Amino acid sequence: MIKLYVIEDHEMIIVSGLRNAFRPSRDQIEVSGSAPNLLTALIDPRLAAVDLIILDLWIPGDDAVESMRQLKVRSPGMPVMIFTSEDLPLWQQKMVDAGAHGFVKKNCSREILKLAIETIAGGKTWYTLPLVTETSPDTGERKPFQFPDLTPVETQIAVMLANGSLHGDIARNLHTSRTMIDNTLMAMRKKYHCRTTVELIKFLTDTSII
């Protein structure tokens, strides 16, 4: 029997959904406990008596990387699976580097989710998205991914966008063309693997790059 502990702020939707999706007698998977945030989970004695912790990436008031650190302190060796709607590969890599054993999208099928849970609880890893990684040229070993830096101009553009400025206003403030702003943003989206400018600004602010 695989016992799960789910840390998820949408308990009525996600946790209930997991309970309904997996029947202990049929699937050998059971949701043994849940909490709406990390603080509640850390003081719950049930946390130490499970086989896998499922952690939502975005919980209001919680920092995902810090949550991983505290879970590792509280339950050393316990596998943690990130369960999220986030589809940015860099966030998956960030959680992998923080110690997550899996990264699974919430829109996956029941069969895929079951296989992911069984795989991670069995001591292996499961990553839905491509891993973004760096390899040491000397040893060939993987090392933690470092987010690329913004140039001074990129920083100015990103900060102004985050503060609500329009592309035309940014071009005038920087004494340049709208085309230059658009081309710079296109390069920034490619650098950070973001599909839209809104996704780019969210990523840059969430990771404290700006």
Question: What's the arrangement of secondary structure elements?
Answer:
Elements: E1 2-7, H1 11-21, H2 24-27, E2 29-35, H3 38-42, E3 52-56, H4 64-74, E4 80-84, H5 89-98, E5 102-105, H6 110-121, E6 126-127, E7 134-135, E8 142-143, H7 152-162, H8 167-173, H9 178-191, H10 197-206
Parallel strand pairs: 1-2, 1-3, 3-4, 4-5, 5-6
Antiparallel strand pairs: 7-8
Helix pairs in contact: 8-9
Task: Give the structure's gist in a few sentences.
With 210 residues, this protein is an alpha/beta fold.
Descriptive report:
It is a single chain. The chain has 210 residues and is of the alpha/beta class. It has two domains: 2-135, 3-Layer(aba) Sandwich (Rossmann fold), CATH 3.40.50; 152-206, Orthogonal Bundle (Arc Repressor Mutant, subunit A), CATH 1.10.10.10. The protein is 45% helix and 16% strand. The protein is built from ten helices and eight strands. It has helices at 11-21, 24-27, 38-42, 64-74, 89-98, 110-121, 152-162, 167-173, 178-191, 197-206, and strands at residues 2-7, 29-35, 52-56, 80-84, 102-105, 126-127, 134-135, 142-143. Strands 2-1-3-4-5-6 form a six-stranded parallel β-sheet, with helices on both faces. A two-stranded antiparallel sheet has the order 7-8. It is elongated. It starts with a strand and ends with a helix. The model has no long low-confidence stretch (mean pLDDT 88).
